[in-house]
Design a protein that fits this description.
two-stranded antiparallel ribbon, elongated, 2 strands, 8 helices, 52% helix, mainly alpha, single chain
Length: 181
Amino acid sequence: MAVLDGRSFVSKTRIRRIIAAFELPPNQQRTLMDAWDAFADAARRVRSAISDSTSANDPHRLRKDVAGHDELEPDPLKATTKEEFLQCMRDFHTWAYEPSYRDIAIRAGKMVGASTLSEALNPYKPARLPSHKVVVAFIRGCGGGDDDLDRWTTAWRRLRMNKPTASNVTQLPALDQRQVS
């Protein structure tokens, strides 16, 4: 198997061996190899188009709020529980113009399916921290950039690893040396 832009398929060498095993005439072998090359080029173009979908010309690209209103963007770093994290994801979905889960899945290169996204964000199901793959697909599919992805990944890791945030760690009062003795 070969990998092209994250997708697996039969390698060109293996295709060549399969074609040779059928002992086809050279012109038919060339035709089949040309078809394989066309497939590989099409796969590259599709993957390139998907990665370009977050470019500045994309109508689905997230626009930041004007100065003084940047509190509208959901901040995953404030989430201290998986329930708060999931609510933040739902809020981000609204903030990102409420794209359909199908559109999110397509824009994310079909890393995950629309039903997976729907299930992960369903407010009527018991809260379960989605996998990192789901979070990445969700943020990319909603038009988030690298800075958004960094924040969401950090928040996901902190929750997954049960690490407290700096704001919810209580400081113990310092002991007075006179009280110790």
